[in-house]
Design brief:
Structural class of chain A: alpha/beta
CATH superfamily of the largest domain in chain A: Dihydrodipicolinate Reductase, domain 2
Distance between the termini of chain A: 34 Å
Number of strands of chain A: 14
Oligomer: homotetramer
Shape of chain A: globular
Largest sheet of chain A: 7 strands, parallel
Strand order of the largest sheet of chain A: 3-2-1-4-5-7-6
Strand content of chain A: 15-25%
Chain lengths: ~350, ~350, ~350, ~350
């Protein structure tokens, strides 16, 4: 039984980690950090977890990490790098924040607005897109969970870029994102009365921070700079990301490349040609569904991908990576079916 | 490994059974019946189950029941009794319809409007409220799953009636029910555009069929006729029932009775005095949360109970009963945490 | 054309007043107060009002009230009494807060926790339930808008209490309230991700402040103390209150009393016997729909009432009262049909 | 006072017409047709309209059209052409179906699958996009309301195509559509339990019928064939269309062209550069909000447009056209503010 700590357990990704680990055969939660709510029980912070026998929330510096085999860090950006830089340097860590996703410190500063405060850790961090960095993750001490939007777009597009199947200068990602991706933050636009009956685009024009990941990963894959268009939209639902990707390339070749790339992946499902995924069919699960349809304009293809931002987009991915790092079966604790309706 | 058949697999309770059994260590789904969609794959009927290796839907009479250890029957009322009366008489069956809940054929005809067509099976059926009929269920061949509203109200009230703690002539149940309880039926008032932004009472005045169960169970418990008031309301959410019960009795005594009654129950959680449950905190799980608060008027108490109509209210209960009937640990396949948010 | 000021224009009831007055033939908005957002345009605070030619938000003390014929005060409780006590003493004011609803200062302090700071104004304030205080409102300088829950319950019950038709010691109000009633406040439980898929009771046991209004009004009406049970529930919808009232009395007599009481009221609609109202059918309008059904238990009746908390429950009521105070047709600006779907 | 008939009054666009006309100063509803619900009152078909004094639903052939000044036809596609071909040939008609939108009978047959059955009427019909066909509409006997998606896309793009400001061979429209656009049809995917917590693309690849309108209108405007990509998505909300248009052209020039084109339009609001519209801010109104943002990739621009599919997208547009045809002020009955929250 591996001993697990979770820092940032009072947020949605922290709660999702607990939900998943509760069904894991060889992990046990020993410590829960949540500075702003230290002293509270999880039953009061997240009543849906009250049936579990969980430790109370404590401040991170009260945790004895010598007893911990792996620590999930579900803290806000910037806080995460400060905390992780002070953890024991041999402690296995899966970080869910944005702090260690970008390898280039200059790119980090460009997208996040401040110099990186934990360059040593950044240098050793492995990018946590499991299906494409499996070996590095298995050998890593520190894994950086990807952005949830960045994961969705990459599942749809990496095999096409790697295969040279699409025009690299004309890639458009139109994403529809559910609200839990914004976290448990008290913001006016996240109130039910504000959000529930409407939808809109945000961070329009190429300003969303997950573009840093797209630029890094797609350019590395192509061996040349790749700059995509990416427009997220906030949708009145709690879980789910749907990426609609407009590319120039042949639909059959694209479908074939995706089928081949994911043929043995347990969580990535490529739908039959012409079918389209829905966020409702992956909700609460670690699955990602991908669909391919050719447009009426020859040579253009629409690739759509759906996943649950809290599961495959963050906490599920994190657990999948932790399984690899601890040499546990990669799918352990992650095979639950989606919740529908 | 027990071989399982599910009849009525194209409805919500059928799909929920499949979701649960997919995580069960000693059950295997061998046959799925769904007459109106016979020939289709589950991936087309319920795409959220497409990752599972499931048999295609067939007509019920195509199934070889000699290979089946237990059959779940998730068919509509009235159809169920016709089908079950033709199944092998030694086949273990858990029925999720209303057909075998009422022991008195006259009561059945009163509430459902037609004479019962399977009196022999009705006579042997055991009422499936697990926590109160555990031994009978373990020994039963045919178990009748309870109504989802009936289960919620009984969890809140049975220990109070049994303990003689409340005025039996003044019990009011005001229920708030999510829409999946109405099934996958094509009705105008179940459309998203009709339902999503409003709510209303229905079956007002004591006409809801689940009253047959309340009458039967509460009267048996009290040893005298007990007639309750029960008003359900349709709420714009997909899963959940919240029962607000207004009773005349002492809050402390009531809270104590509920704590005692459910002290060793794995799925029934009595909250600390004065706390109130929410449907969002049991969503997708087999838990039932119960809260007790005394009113400002001395001698009156409000008992609230929340459960997921598709899980603890039907398919989860059914699986719990099947575990008992097959001598499996009662909680197997049912300990998943709720999905929140 | 009457000149109108609105204080507290950055909240939901303020915005609703603007929406309604925009369609009013003889009112013009001259000043909008909103201290915390002073200096901002309404287009930035409420983009849905951007097509209107509105003054920018200013601090309340910047407004020249000598030019104003009537001032709506949509400020938070407690702030309202401080502001109103400093307004010109001959300025007509419609207050939407709770500050002037309770006539007895001791009752105010009991329910709101602080001594009243504007006793002179409290003494002259008229309770703003239009249909029952029409003459006093027409003659008033200061009208106190009712609580939205208090209005709903009173529309259902006043004629029954006045008519001596029900048992005064056994009245239960189970209310289902939409989220906009909680205002635009940044609270965790009002976030979309928290609220949208679940529902729960709150202020259980007789602690909700609107009970002060029920006690005051029902007791005055009955000529003896009347103490009701009242349990509100928060429902995942934006607008609407549904009151389900459980009373002991004859359904036919009750239906007849309600029909008689509201026969010439433009906004109160008593449905045919046995029909039940829905919040979706009054959404965005000033109408209140009331239904009556007898229970299967003889002598018990369920009265349900539905209205829009932001319209008939607060801002619509406020405009209706202002029309009376300015001797305008009472229905002016208020006859728009509900928005469905 | 003009006498108005509405055929198809039992659907959502019919109900929306009634809602709008109820606030119109010079129209009176004389007849309501609804074959499948003939004989019913509007109070039973649409209880939110019960306060209005409306005629009961009748079969279309029972209506005496000699008394009618203008007839709205809100019938399903294909039915509409059959009914309209039999109406008096001098009766002014505003059709809300797709039957008279496409001028070329071959295009109609291509997109709708059947030969047109009312070619004479098709020949005289005027395309009802008010802002661009104002004079023709004012002089027309028969006006064809546009598709709601088609209207949204055209508001965003017509001035850019007319002005030669964008690459005509690379236009992508990604639309997010609320569910009322699908009408009151009993389809499984429109049920609340199916739709409410997820979203997906449909008619992917250029198969949606509104493409017939884009092709017709954009090609006519450009003087050469223009073929766009158009992918609609179904969003869990009741009202609203958000079009996200990806074009190649200069953002400043595009913003300027839109501002110029709509400078004197009462219903089309071009937001300041860089702001983005939301469907929640036009809900229930006849306004269309348009936003322009330049992408980080030079020479690419995102134009977003939001309107309410039932109002500006169909029934509001229809009333605007009827006002023109009857020589009434174009904005009469249409200036109500959006409903938010």
């Amino acid at each position: 039984m591996y001993n697990i700590a979770i820092l940032g357990a009072s947020g949605y990704t922290g709660a999702e980690l607990i939900r998943l680990i509760a069904g894991h055969s060889s992990m046990k939660i020993n410590a829960l950090g949540g500075n702003s709510k230290a002293g509270q029980t999880m039953a009061s912070v997240f009543p849906h977890l009250r049936h579990l026998d969980l430790p109370a929330l404590v401040a991170a510096d009260e945790i004895d990490f010598s007893q911990i085999d792996l620590c999930f860090c579900a803290l806000p950006h910037k806080t995460s790098q400060e905390v992780i830089s002070k953890l024991p340097s041999d402690l296995k860590v899966v970080d869910l924040s944005a702090d260690f996703r970008l390898r280039d410190p200059a790119a980090y500063e460009k997208w996040y607005g401040n110099p990186h405060a934990a360059l040593a850790q950044q240098a050793e961090a492995v990018y946590g897109l499991t299906e494409f960095y499996r070996d590095e993750i298995a050998a890593a001490r520190l894994v950086a969970g990807t952005g949830c939007n960045a994961a969705t777009g990459q599942f749809a597009l990496r095999p096409l870029i790697a295969g040279g199947l699409i025009d690299l200068d004309d890639i458009i990602l139109d994403l529809k994102c559910a609200v839990s991706g914004a976290g448990r933050a008290l913001k006016e636009n996240l109130l039910h009365a504000e959000l529930s009956e409407g939808y809109h685009a945000y961070a329009v024009g190429g300003t969303h921070r997950h573009l840093g990941e797209f630029d890094q990963e797609f350019s590395a894959l192509a061996g040349r700079p790749v700059t995509v268009q990416f427009t997220p939209h906030l949708i009145p639902a709690n879980r789910g990301i749907l990426a609609t990707c407009y590319v120039k390339g042949d639909a059959q070749a694209i479908h074939h490349a995706l089928q081949t790339a994911y043929a043995s992946e347990p969580f990535i499902v490529v739908l039959p040609m012409g079918e389209t995924p829905s966020t409702r069919h992956i909700r609460g699960s670690n699955f990602c569904h991908i669909g391919v349809t050719g447009d009426r304009i020859k040579g253009r293809t629409i690739v759509t991908a759906a996943l649950d931002n809290l599961t495959k987009g963050s906490s599920g991915q994190a657990l999948q990576n932790a399984n690899l790092m601890l040499n546990i079966d990669e799918t352990e604790g992650l095979m639950m079916a989606p919740l529908f309706p």
